Amino acid sequence: MLKVExxxxxxxxxxxxxxxxxTVDEGEIFGLLGENGAGKTTTFRIIMGLLEPNEGKxxxxxxxxxxxxxxxxxxxxxxxxxxxKLSVQEQIEFYGTLKGLDKKNITERxxxxxxxxxxxxxxxRKIKELSKGNQQKIQFxxxxxxxPKLLILDEPFTGLDPINVKLMKEAIYSLKEKGCSIIFSSxxxxxxxxxxxxxxxxxxxxxxLNGKLADIKESYAKKNILIKGNDIDITAIxxxxxxxSVENTRGEYLIKVENKSVAPKVFALVKNSEITKYDVVxxxxxxxxxxxxxxxxx
Length: 298
Prior knowledge:
alpha/beta; Rossmann fold; Alpha-Beta Plaits; 2 domains; 10 helices
């Protein structure tokens, strides 16, 4: 288990991380969200022992993270950190050796992951000769070659097409099933919704949302109604108190309302029309993010 307890990091008068706390259990995928400059990178560096917080502490399985514990951590950075003049084999041997592995273990694990990612023929190719997507796969392998207890993923799907995103997702789920604690950071909210049971949203280094994704969505007052059908009086729907907006998207009407109590009023108005679909759904994480962060900026 990763435990972050009341960490604060200051650079002069600037507070990069402000009294931040969260836990990531074994086999859990945890979302760390925020705009650029929100404090995510500083938080990652503190977790990996690269920075010391001014206040608070971080532990992995109850131990303070030092050079011994970092051998159990993997990190996929948003910016690639590969040595492009090396071959794939040389690259992974280099990182594996840094993590204390012997050559036999490194080679066995590398062969497994190359086969899983369907790139076995690239073992002796130079990194610079690979496509961006395949470089991203090698970056991922370099981060997990030590079979980490904790894996930090910062925009891990950069440069991947849908087929390779699927392969990467399957790899991440397999690590989760083996008990790896995973912190997932992305600006693509659909990935956070796919992966994360819990999340935290940072604004200027401070947590403004923290908890289970399902609970956050449930507690968010605004809801969406999806309606499909004929003879729907959109003008009348727009006049209902509590209706925020009505959009026609791909043959369906998306009606945003202030809270659940507005939904029966909308239904009462459309129930005699030729309705083929009527769903009250939770807002997307993207909507919650925009409103939460936008509200802070106002």
